[in-house]
Design a protein that fits this description.
alpha+beta, Phosphorylase Kinase, domain 1, Aminoglycoside 3'-phosphotransferase, Chain: A, domain 2
Length: 261
């Protein structure tokens, strides 16, 4: 059984009369709880260990900014108690893209997700206060490697032949000199996208939202098709988004994804 992160007692008491169920858990790091009131109202409570990044206060700030431009959850409240952060959110319409019904129709689903990413990238860059330049990202990774916080177990299979120091060397060699800046999600993958009808209706887990190179999302979003529905769909995702594959940037941002958090 996955080890859940429990909510603070005060938050549990606030929702004493509500039905609680775990919606998603990442072992010992974060649990998202589904809360249903006696009248059927629905909220979600995200609880995360304080020594993990991104902090939930940072996610709350990004959600507040994004709400004017994109369909994202409304923040009810957030805070820190003891060794956990917590973030209460209103529910959105739709089901996440890992739904078996959706995944059984990949030829339909993949373009829906690609169009959803293009919509996300239309948020106004000039208004966004959150930034992640290549230089910023490399500085963060160098610090994590120096402090021993970047672990080999975090590397996906295609990078497992590299040592952590070797992965950093490859990352630095591949770093792009120019960036195509948009507002990026930061972790655009199937569990973080809600779908209803033929469109994306909501975006979740925005703790890493920032102005960054478009390929930060394209590399991870296309990779996510392989994790969730199997090989053979990455180019289909990129075609539906409307870009030609840039293998150098894809490799850089996928390796960055493994090393930065």
């Amino acid at each position: 059984m996955m080890r859940r992160v429990e909510p603070p007692p005060d938050v549990r008491r606030t929702y004493r009369g509500w039905a609680w169920s775990p919606a998603w858990t990442y072992e010992g790091v974060v649990t998202t709880w589904r809360l249903c009131s006696p009248t059927g109202s629905l909220r979600f409570l995200k609880v995360r260990a304080v020594d993990e990044t991104p902090r939930l206060g940072a996610e709350a700030a990004r959600l507040e900014w994004a709400r004017a431009h994109l369909p994202v959850p409304t923040v009810v409240a957030f805070g820190t108690e003891g060794d956990v952060d917590w973030l209460e959110l209103e529910a959105l319409e739709g089901r996440d893209a890992t739904s078996p019904e959706f995944k059984s129709r990949p030829q339909w689903l993949v373009p829906v997700l690609a169009r959803g990413l293009r919509r996300f990238h239309q948020a106004p860059v000039e208004d966004c206060p959150f930034k992640l330049t290549v230089d910023d990202a490399l500085a963060t990774v160098r610090q994590r490697v120096a402090e021993g916080r970047a672990e080999h177990a975090d590397l996906h299979e295609e990078f497992r032949h590299l040592s952590i120091d070797g992965a950093l060397e490859v990352l630095e060699e591949l770093a792009p000199e120019e960036e195509d800046l948009v507002v990026c999600h930061g972790d655009y993958c199937f569990p973080n996208v809600l779908v209803d009808g033929d469109a994306v209706t909501g975006y979740l887990d925005l703790g890493e939202l920032a102005v960054a190179d478009r390929w930060w999302d394209l590399a991870v979003g296309s990779w996510s098709t392989t994790w969730n529905i199997g090989p053979g769909w990455e180019q289909y995702f990129l075609d539906a988004y409307g870009v030609e594959a840039d293998e150098r940037r894809i490799t850089f941002y996928r390796l960055l994804y493994d090393l930065i958090s």
